[in-house]
Amino acid sequence: MKIYYVTLNTDAEAKAISFDLLERHAAVCTNWFPINCAYRWEGEIKTESEFVLIIKTTEGKRDLIEKVISKHIDYLNCIAEIKVNSINDKYLTWLNAEVHK
Question: What local confidence, expressed as pLDDT, does residue 81 receive?
């Protein structure tokens, strides 16, 4: 199992990317939520709100995930891959049945 942590500007972007990935059987489940963000940009510290999208999928989906995200947004964002060391068997069985190889 792999988890992707993705930052986005809006709820609508997170929903659109989620549905696109789910329709392609590239993810078994997604979650998104609003957060506050502080970052350094062009020598200044900025703050704003953003949305975090969590994508639950299998190995080898990064290229497809990045392609789908780039279809919906055109700005610099974070797409971080998180390796999962352990997961319950029932969830893993569901994941492997739903996500196409």
Answer: 97
